Amino acid sequence: SETELELMRKAANISVKAHNHARSFAQAGRYEYEIQAEMEHLFGLNGGTPAYPSIVASGVNACILHYIENNRQLQDGDLLLIDAGCSYQYYNADITRTFPVSGKFTSEQKTIYEIVLKAQLAAIEQVKPGNPYKQVHDAAVRVIVECLMDLGLLTGDIEEIIKEEKYKPFYMHRTGHWLGLDVHDVGVYQWGENPQELQPGQVLTVEPGIYISPEIKPVEGQPEVDQRWRGIGVRIEDDVLVTSQGYDVLTAGVPKSVEEMES
Predict the structure, then answer these.
(1) How many CA atoms lie within 13 A of 143 on its CB side?
(2) φ, ψ at 57 (rounded to 5°)
(3) pLDDT tens digits for 196-209?
(4) DSSP string, 96-125
């Protein structure tokens, strides 16, 4: 309802402020928990609480999906992945951004970041009334697979790689979930063989990622991963409202272009 969406926009706006503050606050020498404290302090100052345990993952920690220890010291050369959102009057936001601590991506970090951003933008474009929910995920997967094939990190037939999910060592989760009174809100994603179609008023997250663990083990028949890619983890997540005409990104106030991440 419009009343609920007003509360969700408020939760999103508080979360946007916190993420933008975190990027200006983060620097080498600080600890992950300091970033967490700054963000959650802003949630509280604006009448909110953390919607879920905040993930502040620097360096190789960004390759751990639900990392919440938040106790590592940030280093120059690290990427910092922050997955944190505010709950406001029981309605939730959920944002992830990944940026270079030093203000400059390495060439490998930039390459992976650009793939994830391209996948996210392609997935968001599939958010419109009548589209099957899974089309959002499928769009992100195709971009990720195509680009990893271009880098030589995946080889073979693209349709076979997608069907057999040979990309999963790099991208092991779905591209999003319903969002509302719970962070992973109630709702059907698929009715047996029939797709759940997107409808105006629904809110979902769109959050592709690539995680290249230092110990990554590709599926059988796929190439070993060169050392220069290992330890890079990137996720980009926004909260997207299905409108009568298409979509509205509720969390668009947090920058995500390469140029903005390096500014």
Answers:
(1) 23
(2) -120, 110
(3) 999 999 999 999 99
(4) EEEEETTS---HHHHHHHHHHHHHHHHHHT
**SS3 state of residue 75:** coil
Report pLDDT for 55. Answer: 98
CA distance linking residue 92 with residue 29, whole number of Å: 31
Residue closest to 118 by CA, chosen among 247, 250, 234: 234
CA distance 199 to 125: 15
Q: Which of 42, 130, 56 is nearest to 99 (CA)?
A: 56
Dihedral class, residue 177 (left if φ above 0, else alpha if ψ from -120 to 50, else beta): beta
Place of tokens 């990190």: 153
User: What is the pTM assigned to this prediction?
Assistant: 0.98
C-alpha to C-alpha distance for 191 and 176, rounded to whole angstroms: 17
Q: What per-residue confidence (pLDDT) applies to 263?
A: 80
Spatial separation of the C-alpha atoms in residues 138 and 158, rounded to whole Å: 13
Q: How many CB atoms lie within 10 A of CB 40?
A: 17
205 pairs with which residues across the strands? Answer: 239
* pLDDT over 90 at 4, yes or no: yes
Segment 71-89 shows an average pLDDT of: 98
**pLDDT tens-place string over residues 5-49:** 999 999 999 999 999 999 999 999 999 999 999 999 999 999 999
CB proximity list for 151: less than 8 A, separation 6 or greater: 111, 229
3-state DSSP assignment of residue 164: coil
**How many angstroms separate the CA atoms of 89 and 199, rounded?**
24
For the stretch 217-249, pLDDT in tens is 999 999 999 999 999 999 999 999 999 999 999
